[in-house]
What does this fold into?
Amino acid sequence: MTDAEEAEEARAVVDVTERLRRRFPTVAEDVIYQVVADYHREFDTSPIRDFVPILVERQARDHLRRVPRQRTGSPEP
It folds into this structure.
């Protein structure tokens, strides 16, 4: 992956995080950041990167739907 592609993916993951923050305002920000980072890390060895942000968003969104509706706490394993 080139530096430009890495930067583009990083921007896309930041956008994912921001969308999820708006969608789940009752979930603590640090929980959202951690969930996104954890799912993004799962794709570290994936050779095809085009859909990584989309897949991360779907997995994180599904996970966050199960997080108790409060402003504090940590993500479930």
Notes: The CA atoms of residues 4 and 10 lie 10 Å apart. The chain has three helices and no strands.
